[in-house]
Write a structure and sequence with these properties.
heterodimer, A: alpha/beta, Glycerol-3-phosphate (1)-acyltransferase, 9 helices, B: mainly alpha, Non-ribosomal Peptide Synthetase Peptidyl Carrier Protein, Chain A
Chain lengths: 250, 85
């Protein structure tokens, strides 16, 4: 194996080791403890997930020093908001979980059926992408508690494109996040993430540790419903989000 | 409230609050107007206000199967009549 590929291989193995062994040894029992004994199970599970991924990103930072990280410090301080972000890599949701201790997000329904992971995301209060069939009850529960969750400082983060962008451009937006923001009268923060796909490319198994790269995460717009005379329509919110991304592309 | 009055109220809600354009009674809400589970929860809140009741969890879950505006009207009438039995 070439020396440069060896580095990619080692970092990938290290990350997977954390995902599997790290979870089993350091976190699995904490999750079980949180589920059984925590006063607020959902909050405890979210906090544990955040810590789990904080360690993952520490590992990546140390093991892949060619990638610089420029994370807007204000992102971690966001509270009580719906956060929308462009989506480039599987690392993106993990990064937001690491940064936002009190978080919920929307997850594809098939993930809820996975052993262990499905249990964790259900206990963490994540929403299924569809409320059909067996997921209708879960969707009702999570949406009805959303306003309270947001008012108590939680954040809902969503990648409104629904899938990873293959060309870096913003695709069509799904309106679910904006509908929730409108329903809960919550502010919308628009984030711009760049270059996570250079570190972990869609369709590749190995991390790319060899290239010089800067991964950045910035707040590019804040839409405050309190500043409006009336609650902005979902279409208006969508227009504003798209405008924020398009102005950045100029 | 008769069905015509109910229909007028629901159509007003769908056009004003949900930004529907020219909704038809048998339009597929999801495919034709992008109506999803989040909208369904919001609409249920408005139905509770119209009927002056609090829907049970079972009633709410049933609402997730609604596909058309006629289904919405049937659903409201069924709830209303079950409460007045």
């Amino acid at each position: 194996m070439r020396k440069d590929l060896l580095s990619d291989f080692l970092v990938t193995i290290l990350c997977w080791a954390w995902f599997t062994l790290g979870f089993l040894v350091f976190f699995s029992w904490r999750y079980v403890g949180a589920a059984l004994f925590a006063r607020e199970t959902e909050t405890s599970i979210q906090r544990l997930s955040s810590r789990f991924y904080q360690v993952l990103f520490r590992i990546i930072r140390v093991a892949a020093p060619n990638h610089r990280w420029e994370i807007d410090e204000e992102v971690g301080a966001i509270r009580s908001a719906v956060i929308v972000c462009n989506h480039l890599s599987y690392l993106d949701p993990l990064l937001l979980i690491a940064l936002l201790e009190r978080h919920r997000t929307i997850v594809k329904t098939r993930f809820f059926k996975m052993p262990v992971f499905g249990w964790v995301i259900k206990k963490a209060g994540y929403l299924p992408a569809s409320g059909n069939g067996e997921f209708s009850g879960m969707m009702i529960d999570q949406l009805e508690s959303m306003k309270d969750f947001l008012q108590r400082g939680g954040n809902l983060f969503i990648f409104p494109e629904g899938t990873r962008s293959r060309d870096g451009k913003i695709g069509n937006l799904r309106r679910g996040a904006l509908k929730i923001a409108r329903l809960c009268h919550a502010p919308v923060y628009v984030l711009r993430l760049a270059n996570t796909d250079k570190l972990f490319m869609p369709g590749k198994f190995l991390f790319n540790t060899r290239i010089k790269n800067t991964i950045s995460l910035k707040i590019i717009d804040r839409i405050q419903p309190a500043c409006q005379h009336t609650t902005p329509s979902t279409a208006r919110l969508e227009q504003r989000v798209l405008q924020a991304y398009s102005e950045l592309a100029k | 409230m008769n069905r015509d009055e109910l229909q007028e109220k629901i159509l007003t809600i769908l056009t004003v609050d949900f930004e529907f354009s020219q909704p038809g009674l048998d339009d597929n809400l999801r495919d034709d107007h992008g109506f999803d589970s989040i909208d369904a929860i919001e609409l249920l809140g408005k139905i509770e206000v119209i009927l002056g009741i609090t829907l049970t969890r079972e009633e709410k879950e049933k609402a997730m199967e609604i596909r058309t505006i006629n289904d919405v009207l049937d659903y409201i009438e069924a709830i209303d009549s079950s409460r007045h039995r």
